[in-house]
Amino acid sequence: MRPPSWKLGEDKLFRNEPERHLGAKLVYMGNSRFCLVEFMFHKDDEHLLRRDPKEAGRRRVLHVTAFGLKYSEEGQLRTTLRRARSCKTYSKQPPDYGYGMSVEPVAFWL
């Protein structure tokens, strides 16, 4: 069995701040619903961007966007049921247990 062909939608879900972006995960929640989890440096710490990313004192922000996908009448892939973003700010770096967890967000759906 062949996998389905790739489709790109027009809607942009990532935040447009690549210099602050640390990582992201896309979680499938069933019934064409997804959750995008982005891990970024805090916007007020831009003066620290050139310093070592693992240095203490740089706040991190976790942004969560839940959305659905469906095809429009024209056959275009579109986002639906887009929920307001939520975020959590961390004032100190989470521990890195040797798996890069301090840079990459970990997300799953039960």
Main beta-sheet annotation? 5 strands, antiparallel
Number of helices: 0
Could you estimate the helical fraction of the residues in percent?
A: under 10%
**Average pLDDT, to the nearest integer?**
74
Q: Class by helix and strand content?
A: mainly beta
Sequence-ordered SSE layout with sheet pairings:
Elements: E1 21-30, E2 33-41, E3 60-71, E4 77-80, E5 86-90
Antiparallel strand pairs: 1-2, 2-3, 3-4, 3-5
Structural notes for this entry:
This protein has 110 residues and is mainly β. It has a domain at 21-83. It has no helices and 5 strands. It has strands at residues 21-30, 33-41, 60-71, 77-80, 86-90. Residues 97-101 have low confidence and may be disordered.
What would the keywords be for this entry?
110 residues; mainly beta; 5-stranded antiparallel β-sheet; elongated
What's this, in brief?
The chain is mostly beta strands and 110 residues long.
